[in-house]
Amino acid sequence: MELEPLIEKFKQKDEKAFETLYNMYSESMQGVIYNIVRDNDIAEEVMQDVFIKAWHNASSYSSEKGRFFTWILNIARNAAIDKTRSKAFKKSKQNLDADFFVDILETSDSLDNSTDAIGIKKFVKKLGEKCKAVLELLYFKGYTQVEASEALDMPVGTIKTRNRNCIKELRNMVLE
Amino acid sequence: MDIQAYIESGILELYVAGALSEKENKEVYNLMLQYPEILQEVLEIEAAIIKLTASVSPVKHNDKILQAVKAHLGLTGTNSNVIPMPKYNWVTYTGWAASVLLAIGLFWTTTQNNQLKTDIQIVKTQQELLETQIANAKSNLEEANTLISVLRDNNITKIPLAGQGNFSSTYANVYWDKQQQRIYLDAEGLPEPPEGKVYQVWSLTLNPLTPTSLGTIDNFITDDNKIFEIENANASEAFGITLEPAGGSETPTMEFLYTLGVVNAG
Questions:
Q1: B73 CB near a chain A CB, below 8 Å?
Q2: ipTM over the 0.85 cut-off
Q3: Mind spelling out the 3-state secondary structure of chain B?
Q4: Which residues 48-67 of chain B have a CB within 8 Å of chain A?
Q5: What's residue A2's pLDDT?
Q6: Do B56 and A105 touch (CB under 8 A)?
Q7: What CATH number does the domain located at B156-262 have?
Q8: pLDDT band at B139 (very low <50, low <70, confident <90, very high)
Q9: What pLDDT, in 10s, does the model give residues B188-211?
Q10: Which residues on chain A are in Cβ contact (under 8 Å) with B64?
Q11: Domains in chain A and their CATH numbers?
Q12: pLDDT beyond 90 at A127
C-alpha cells in the first residue's frame, strides 16, 4: 500500500490505517524504547503511550516536516526518555547511559533467527566502535547532528559521512 | 544541482533520524518531490533503520499492545473513519412508534377517566340539589294544605289586627282555633324586625286590660310564608303584637305596639 494515502487516512482517524501503520512500525519502536528503558514491562507501557499519543496527535503530522517514521520515532524516543526521568524509574534502574543497542544484540539469545536478525547480528559484530556510537545517538537516542558531534567529539561533517557509510553497510546486509 | 553529491553527503540519513533542523527538513522534502532518486534513497535508508531498530525489540509483532491501545482509544475493530451508526431496523422503529402510541393512548384514557369522574360528581350534586328542592316542595305543599284546611275550618275565628299609631301601615291576621287552643298568626304585613329586636305576641282581656304573652317570634326573618302556629289556651278578647328586645318582655312596650285586633263576640 502507498504510504501517503495510508497516512492521510490515519490522520482522519481511520482505524484500519492505524493498525497497518502500527504493524509497520511497532517492532522498530519497541526496539528503540526497550533500548532506552531496558525493561520489557516498562517498554510495553511506553509503547501504549506512544501509539495512543500518535492517534490523538495524528492531525499534527505533516509530511513537509519529515518522514512519518521519523515523527513516530520522535514520539517513542521522547516518551521513553521521559520515562527514564520519572522518580519511580530512577529508583529501580541504575545509570543506563553506558549501554548501547549493540549490547542487546550481542548478548541476547532470545532474538529470532530470521535472515534480517542474523544479518544484523553479523553487521553489528563487524561495526567499529565509532559507528556503533553514531547509530546509537542518532537513531536510538534522537541526538541532533550538533549534539552527536559534541558528544562524540567529531566534526559534524565527519558524523554525516561516517553515519552514511555505516548505514550503507547495513543496507547491503538487510536489503537486497 | 549534483544529486549524487547531495545523497553522498549523508544528509538523508540524518533526515530519517530526525536530526535536522525544520528548515533542512523542508528542503529535503522538496527535493524528494523533485528528484525520485532522492526519494528512493530516503526510502531505503528508512527501511534499513526500521530493520535495525526492530532487531533490538525483545518482542516480535506485539499484538497485545495494539489491542490495549485500541481498547484505550475505544476503537471497535471496524473502520472508525465512518462513525458507526447504531443499526436501527424496522423492529426498533415499530417498537418506538408503538410505545409512543401507547403513551398517547394511556394519557387520553386517563384524561377521559378524570373527565367522567368530574361529570359524575356534578350530576351527583345536581341530584342532591333536586332531592332537596323536592323535599322542600313537599313540605311547602303540606304547609299550604294545612293552611287551606285551617281557613276552611268553621271553628276558626279570623281576627284582623290593624296597624297602630306610627305603624298604621302594618297589619296582621290571627286565625284562632279555639277547640285546638292555638292560633295561626299571619304576619306578612309586618316589616322585618331590626337587629336585636323581636316581635312578641300578646293575648289580651279587656276588663281589666290584662296582657298575657304568647311568646316571641324568633324565626320571623327566616320563615318563608310568615305564618306562625302558636299555642293559646287563654280566653282572649284581643290580640296584639309589639316590638320588644330579643328574648321578649314581661309586659308589652306600648310605644312599639304595631298591630292590635279585638275578637268579635259571638
A1: yes
A2: yes
A3: CCHHHHHHCCHHHHHHHCCCCHHHHHHHHHHHHHCHHHHHHHHHHHHHHHHHHHHHCCCCCCHHHHHHHHHHHCCCCCCCCCCCCCCCCHHHHHHHHHHHHHHHHHHHHHHHHHHHHHHHHHHHHHHHHHHHHHHHHHHHHHHHHHHHHHHHCCCEEEEEEEECHHHCCCEEEEEEECCCCEEEEECCCCCCCCCCEEEEEEEEECCCCEEEEEEEECCCCCCCCCEEEEECCCCCCEEEEEEEECCCCCCCCHHHEEEEEECCCC
A4: 48-62, 64-66
A5: 73
A6: yes
A7: 2.60.40
A8: confident
A9: 899 999 989 999 999 999 888 899
A10: 44
A11: 3-92 (1.10.1740.10), 103-174 (1.10.10.10)
A12: no
Q: What is the pLDDT of residue A111?
A: 53
Q: How many CB pairs under 8 A join A and B?
A: 183
Over residues A78-111, the pLDDT tens digits come to 999 999 888 777 776 655 555 677 777 766 655 5
Band (pLDDT 50/70/90 cuts) for residue B88 is: low
* Interface contact B65-A26, CB threshold 8 A: yes
C-alpha to C-alpha distance for B174 and B153, rounded to whole angstroms: 14
B60 contacts in chain A (CB < 8 Å): 27, 112
Rounded Cα gap, residues A117 and B165, in angstroms = 145
pLDDT in tens, B216-265: 999 898 887 888 999 998 889 999 999 999 989 999 998 999 999 999 86
Kindly state the cell numbers that stand for B32.
524528494
Residue with cell 398517547: B104
* Amino acid (1-letter code) at residue A75: I
pLDDT tens per residue, range B6-17: 999 999 999 999
Give the count of alpha carbons within 13 A of A49, CB side only: 17
Element (H, E) at A96: none
**B171: which 3 cell numbers?**
297589619
DSSP conformation class of A138: I
The answer to whether B34 touches B5, Cβ cutoff 8 Å, is no
Q: Find cell 286565625 and name the residue.
A: B175
Domain boundaries, chain B: 3-73, 156-262
Residue with cell 526500521: B50
Sheet bearing B257-262, strands edge to edge: B210-217, B197-205, B238-245, B257-262, B156-163, B171-177, B182-186, B227-231
